[in-house]
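Q: What residues go here?
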C-alpha cells in the first residue's frame, strides 16, 4: 500500500510539473518584503496534495496566451479558491487557464499570498495582477478587455477587486486602482453576514475576533457602486459549503444599480467542482462562459 501511495504521489508531482511548464510566461509580482503589506508567514510553500499549496508568501502570475487563430482580445486573471488558507491551483487554476487559452482568451493564474489575518494582502495581490495585465503585460495592446475570475474564496477576492474594496479600505500602495472590465464568479464566497457567511474564509481573511465594522467593510455586496463591472455567476443549487445566497445577494445589489449581470444556478453539483470531469454540468458551464465572453466582447 505504501509503495502504491508513493507511486501515486510521483504521478501527481509529474502531472503538476507538466502543467506548470505549459504556461507562456511566469511573472513575479512581489513578495512579503516588497509588497505594501506582509502576511507575516515564513518558510517555503507547503504542498497540500491534489495540486494545492499553502503558506504562500509571494504573488505570481502564470500566463497562458490565447491561441493566435482564436484570440478574442480578452484576458482573465484567475483567483483559485481554498478558503484563504490554501490555493487549489490545479482544477481551479491552471486547468481553467489552459482551456481558456485554447478558446482564444488569455488567462493569468494568480498565486496570491495567504492573508493569515492580514486582509489587505490578497486584495493588493489581485489588484496588482489586474494592473499588470492592463499596464505591463507585453501584449497588452492586443487586449480589449481584462476581467477577473474566482472560485469560492477566490470568488470573494475577485468580487472584492471588482467592487473596489481595497480602494475603499485604504490601498497602502497609493497606486491608482484599475478595476477589471468584467467578473466571472464560480460558487463565490461573498457575504460576511453570519446568516450566509463561509466562516472559515472570513476567519482566515480577517483574523478571529473581527469587529462588526470590519466584517461589513469586506463584504462585496455592501459596496456595489456604479463603477462595479458586469458579472457572470455560476454555481450549484445544492452547494452546502457556500450558500447560493452569497451569489444572489451580490447579483441583487448589482441589479439595483442596473449593472449587467447573469446568474446561472445549476441543479446540483455541490461545491468545488471547478474543471473536474466528474461534474455532470461541465460542458454546460463551459459553453455558458464562452457565450458570455462572446456577448460582452461585442458590446
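A:
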Amino acid at each position: 500500500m505504501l509503495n502504491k501511495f508513493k507511486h501515486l504521489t510521483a504521478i501527481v508531482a509529474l502531472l503538476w510539473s507538466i502543467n506548470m511548464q505549459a504556461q507562456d510566461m511566469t511573472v513575479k509580482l512581489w513578495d512579503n518584503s516588497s509588497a505594501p503589506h506582509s502576511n507575516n508567514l515564513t518558510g517555503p510553500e507547503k504542498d497540500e496534495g491534489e495540486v494545492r499549496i499553502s503558506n504562500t508568501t509571494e504573488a505570481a502570475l502564470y500566463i497562458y496566451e490565447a491561441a493566435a487563430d482564436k484570440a478574442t482580445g480578452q484576458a482573465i486573471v484567475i483567483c483559485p479558491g481554498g478558503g484563504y488558507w490554501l490555493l487549489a491551483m490545479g482544477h481551479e487554476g491552471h486547468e481553467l487557464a489552459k482551456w481558456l487559452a485554447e478558446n482564444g482568451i488569455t488567462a493569468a493564474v494568480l498565486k496570491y499570498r495567504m492573508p493569515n489575518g492580514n486582509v489587505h494582502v490578497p486584495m493588493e495581490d489581485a489588484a496588482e495582477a489586474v494592473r499588470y495585465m492592463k499596464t505591463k503585460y507585453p501584449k497588452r495592446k492586443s487586449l480589449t478587455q481584462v476581467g477577473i475570475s474566482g472560485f469560492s474564496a477566490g470568488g470573494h477576492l475577485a468580487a472584492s477587486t471588482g467592487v473596489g474594496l481595497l480602494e475603499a479600505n485604504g490601498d497602502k500602495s497609493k497606486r491608482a486602482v484599475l478595476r477589471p472590465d468584467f467578473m466571472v464568479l464560480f460558487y463565490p464566497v461573498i457575504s460576511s453576514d453570519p446568516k450566509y457567511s463561509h466562516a472559515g474564509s472570513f476567519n482566515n481573511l480577517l483574523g478571529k475576533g473581527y469587529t462588526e465594522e470590519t466584517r461589513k467593510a469586506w463584504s462585496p455586496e455592501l459596496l456595489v457602486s456604479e463603477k462595479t463591472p458586469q458579472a457572470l455567476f455560476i454555481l450549484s443549487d445544492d452547494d452546502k459549503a457556500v450558500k447560493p445566497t452569497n451569489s444572489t445577494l451580490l447579483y441583487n445589489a448589482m441589479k439595483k444599480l442596473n449593472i449587467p449581470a447573469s446568474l446561472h444556478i445549476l441543479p446540483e453539483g455541490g461545491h468545488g467542482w471547478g474543471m473536474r470531469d466528474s461534474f455532470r454540468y461541465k460542458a454546460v458551464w463551459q459553453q455558458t462562459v464562452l457565450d458570455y465572453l462572446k456577448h460582452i466582447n461585442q458590446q
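A: Context that may help when evaluating the design: The longest strand covers residues 25-31. The chain is about 35% helix and 20% strand.
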